[in-house]
Amino acid sequence: MSAGPSTLPPSQAPSTLEYGGDEISALVLDPGQCWTRAGFAGEDTPKSVIPSHYGYIEGAGPDGGRKLYFGDNDVHAVRAGMEIANPMSDGIVADWDTAPSLWRYALTSRLAQDLSEHPLLVTEPIWNPTKNREKTIEVAFEDFDVPAFYLARNAVCAGFAFGKSTALILDVGAANIAVTPVHDGYVLKKGCQRQPIGGDFLSNQIRTHLANMGISITPHYQVLSKIPVDVGKPAEATLKTWPEGQAPTESFRRFEEERVLTEFKECCAQAWPGPGPLPAIMPEGGVPNVAATRSFEFPDGYNMLFGLERFRMTEGIFTPRSMLASANIPHPYPEHTLGLKDMVFAAMKDVDVDIKQIILNSVVVTGAGSLLYQFNERALHELGIAFPGPRVKMLASQIPVERRYATWLGGSILASLGSFHQLWISKKEYEEHGANIVEKRCK
Amino acid sequence: MLKNDDWSREETDYLFSMCREYDLRFPIIWDRYEWPSKQRSLEDLKARYYASCRSLMELRTPMGQMSPEVLNQFNLYNFDKEREVMRRSMAERQFNKTQQQFAEEEMLLTELKRIVANQEKMFEERRDFYQRLNFPTTTGSIQPYTGSQGLAHLRDMMLSSSDKSKKRKSVALGQGSGADAAQQTPTSANSIDRPGIGGSAKEKDGKDLKRQVRKLTQEEEQLYGVSYHEKLSSGVKLRSGMVASNVKGATAAKVATALTQLGIAPRLTMPTASAVQRYEQLQNAVGVLLDSKKLLDKLEQEARVLKAQLELKEG
């Protein structure tokens, strides 16, 4: 992880000398529910990170079709009639009309001009169905015209980022929390677990709580000016107005509200550090030191102190029964949802007893959702309860960037290895065997 | 031989293809194993695989004709399913142990260790105790020690034995000092080695020289004064200081006084090789003479005592 490669201009592939001659300037693409990450293999961070959400205006395209907007700047720009959508659902591609364009944008806007010169490694979640996998290789060879392709499991990549080929991967993504045992670089399919209690779930929990408190969220783009107000006093902000028909769409508003919720998540939300679940009623003697109140100022100037609620919002991850429920904000069924501890327990149930201890010795925590304050402490407590005997060792990078991009980083390491080159699926092989080759080659 | 009622040919082929695919990583093979209407445990797969391998090996070469390596391999493939199942269930139980159970186990183990240590100590003490209770049994008759002369003899014996033990002690001490010296030598050797940068080169030269040396005949040896020594310590020494005396201890001092009485200096003025040799011989001879004189004195004394006793008895 030298500082060298990061100082290169983003459009330049690292020199071959730097990577011992194995450099083939491969590209690595890690499409996630919330962010799509792309970069050159062999580097330590993706150079192109764009939101998986995209904007579109119906009928504004060149031939009367959709006009698409990708990338941070365009997606957040206020445009009349621009709708926001996401081609991903549940961590996998659902809209195959847009996803290739989004990927092309991620790869070509900053990195490579001509995709036919760069082999491409794409990561995928474990639950990616065969149809989707075949579609991915089709897009790569027929749409992008890449010379070689590989589809890697994201859990395996996350393990590689920590130098582990045998590990338990705890991936806290936007759509899901996924627990995946990996042995010798192979995913143990029987042990894969996922629950829809990731970052989006957390945002919805916060949304529910704010709705229950009667706080409405005003996104940044609506605020023209604001005056400071006292805690809990109504906001005194001047809001922007748009002429008839020029106002941003409802989906754009919702997307921008999510940004405020993300901010709240980063500033205020906190996992109850344990041990044990968050008590329903705080014991007499007051709130412990960790639960000190924090204030949060909304974009319109309204500010409020948050105390114990900060833990209530996140407790659903660990004990789904205590999640906040609301009629009009979606949430999973608490009865059918497994908490983190139960997920890990279920994942380890079907793992061979001889490798259980090795796997539990390296529990890799990754995904931006795991950056929730004190998430790791709580997770370690929960694992300690689930597996009292064996020593559970948790690996989590203290650097936020590495935690967010661990999967991409693993893919970058994998694609830059000399011994990996024999695993690429070449264009010729694809033409010979068809899309089904991905099932045979990318286990 | 390869047939198994539970395993169809197709399924066995499938198992072998999986084994090839995943390089015999059985946990993964078991994880990915999908055969319609069959639920196989990891042990089932392993048992079938190894049994097939053994059968195949035996079919290709009968057991009697196998080379030792192959036979070794053949024996390694002996997979005991029941035992493996038992081992795994035990491992599972071990895995599911709680922290309290672990702590308890640890406590019991330390307790056991303590008890064993105590028992050993007790046994030792008991043995010691028994030894103390047992008085030493006499082996020979006490007749020889009844008289005053016998008692004197006994006293001599005891004294000499105590002398011996003293000697033993001194020997032990000497060894200790020797060890010290040995410890010191490497440092001195180091100090010698250090200034010579070309030390290793010199050594090499020396070796080469040794190789070139031709064997001298006896005449030549005498002519050139070449001699071989059994024990040589490093450093330059005077031959006069190297005079070895075969006589040791109390006799050495007596030999020295005898030599001074004879008017021979303790150090040779001209210590040529032959002179030193003769000197050593002289010393030896004097030592032998002195020893025999001492023995003679003793015998004469005894004879006198016995004569006196005889006179007393007769008289």
From TrEMBL, chain A:
Family: Belongs to the actin family.
InterPro entries, per the entry: Actin (IPR004000), Actin/actin-like_CS (IPR020902), Actin_CS (IPR004001), ATPase_NBD (IPR043129)
Reactions listed under catalytic activity: ATP + H2O = ADP + phosphate + H(+)
SUPFAM superfamilies: Actin-like ATPase domain (SSF53067)
Origin superkingdom: Eukaryota
Protein name (record): Actin family
Entry function: Actins are highly conserved proteins that are involved in various types of cell motility and are ubiquitously expressed in all eukaryotic cells.
UniProtKB/TrEMBL annotation, chain B:
Principal subcellular localisation of the protein: nucleus
A Gene Ontology biological process term: DNA repair
Biased composition (Basic and acidic residues): 201-210
Keywords noted in UniProt: Chromatin regulator, Nucleus, Transcription, Transcription regulation
Highest taxon of the lineage: Eukaryota
Cellular component terms per the entry's GO annotation: NuA4 histone acetyltransferase complex; Swr1 complex
Region (Disordered): 160-210
Keyword Cell membrane assigned: no
Compositionally skewed regions (Polar residues) per UniProt: 182-191
Localization terms from the record: Nucleus
DAMP1 SANT/Myb-like domain boundaries: 1-57
Sample GO molecular function, one term: transcription corepressor activity
One Pfam family hit: SANT_DAMP1_like
Protein family (similarity comment): Belongs to the SWC4 family.
Entry protein name: SWR1-complex protein 4
